[in-house]
Design a protein that fits this description.
six-stranded mixed sheet, about 400 residues, seven-stranded mixed sheet, 13 strands, Nucleotidyltransferase, domain 5, alpha/beta, 2 domains
């Protein structure tokens, strides 16, 4: 495809440069350089190009690892002929979104089954469809996933099994099949090809805990509250998160509404003085919808935003007050409380709160550590700041 496209610059991306070399370029009999000896490799760059690359005649193929944001940004913004992304399901979404702008003539991506709630599926993978000749090879469970997103013309999906792998011998296949237990996630993803959530997920949110707004309005509420988490970074997908919560007379915590902003996506970044009017509009709208709220809780680590909001309240004199979030309850205790409420259906989420649902289905433990990852948690944090002062009002009473 490098030779068939009209442009002279191309791209191969993997988790790291080492992964690109071992998985794609030099992989026994199946590596790119093993089959095309005319390709020249310059892992340390050359006098013409300092970035790692391949030379195929007068074509240049850049080699990047998407795990290193600083390095992959050096190649973004260019116009490419052919692009190959290895294991796109674990790639940084800002990297993927940038490449999926009209910057290429041909793209090939590989991936393994992963958490079906990941953005890569809804935004990219599920928009592809198998060509007519091979559509019967796609199992029913995968069709159900693909049909969750509208089809994009010219986007093709290939469902590959061990039978499609020319490098796997019968002996290798037998060893793999017997090395994994059927009840493990690895067996479900690697052997059966089923998209499934990882065992490292912190919350398990059943569908029964997601309700409609109409169902939420059938409850009687004794407390409304709002939590706010902030992030002013323009380099990450971290968000400003507003979460509006109602606590019912029967002890249920219901996430009723949410709002997110991301400085990375805004042409003019938000500053602490921009938050008060946005938060005022959000709370005012929710009070009209649900009922009166007297207190909102802002991340106490962000004193600038808290002070700006308190100043805004003093100047305009509305019916609620802003406080710093109460963080005396440890994170692990907050997680245990939430999981207990989920299990007893005392934690419910209105289905319009798609960001909160997404985070609940993605929030994970750090590998080999008993602490949560610092990601997919801004609406979760905002939600916690809202309910922490009222936690004794939630759950069944003995």
């Amino acid at each position: 495809m490098v030779k068939k496209t009209s442009r002279k610059k191309h791209l191969i991306a993997g988790d790291s440069l080492g992964t690109v070399v071992s998985n794609i370029l030099l992989n026994g009999d199946c590596g790119l350089l093993d089959n095309y000896p005319e390709i020249e490799m310059y892992l340390n760059g050359s006098s013409e190009q300092k970035l790692p690359h391949l030379k195929i005649g007068d074509d240049t193929v850049y080699l990047v690892g998407y795990a290193d944001i600083g390095k992959f940004k050096k190649v973004l913004g260019g116009q490419f002929g052919a692009i190959f992304i290895d294991e796109i399901n674990i790639a940084d979404m800002s990297f993927v979104r940038e490449l999926f702008l009209p910057r290429f003539e041909y793209m090939l991506c590989t991936l393994n089954p992963d958490n079906p709630n990941k953005e890569i599926y809804t935004e990219i993978i599920n928009r592809a469809r198998p060509i007519e000749k091979y559509k019967d090879q796609v199992p029913k469970h995968m069709w159900e996933e693909l049909n969750k997103s509208p089809q994009s013309k010219g986007w093709h999906y290939w469902y590959l099994t061990f039978d499609d792998n020319p490098s796997m011998t019968e002996d290798m296949r037998d060893k793999l099949l017997t090395s994994l237990l059927p009840e493990t996630r690895e067996y479900k993803t690697k052997i059966l090809g089923i998209r499934t959530k990882g065992v490292g997920l912190i919350f398990s949110l059943p569908q029964k805990n997601i309700i409609s707004k109409e169902q939420a309005k059938k409850y009687q509420y004794k407390q409304f509250t709002c939590g706010v988490d902030t992030s002013y970074s323009r380099e990450s997908k971290d968000t400003f998160a507003f979460s509006f919560i109602g606590i019912t007379t029967c002890g249920k915590k219901i996430t009723l509404a949410e709002k997110e902003y991301n400085n990375k996506d805004l042409p003019v970044p938000l500053t602490p003085s921009d938050i008060p009017p946005l938060l005022f509009d959000f709370i005012t709208e929710q009070q009209k919808e649900w009922g009166v709220m007297r207190s909102a809780f802002i991340d106490s680590a962000d004193q600038a935003t808290l002070l700006e909001c308190q100043k805004h309240q003093r100047v305009h004199g509305y019916n609620w007050y802003y406080f710093g979030a109460y963080k005396q309850t440890r994170v692990i205790d907050r997680i245990n409380l939430e999981n207990g409420w989920i299990a007893t259906e005392c934690s419910l989420i209105v289905d319009e709160c798609k960001g909160t649902i997404r985070e609940m289905n993605q929030y994970s433990w750090k590998p080999n550590k008993d602490e949560p990852e610092d990601a997919n948690d801004h609406l979760i944090n905002a939600n916690q700041y809202g309910w922490l002062p009222y936690k004794n009002m939630i759950g069944f009473k003995k």
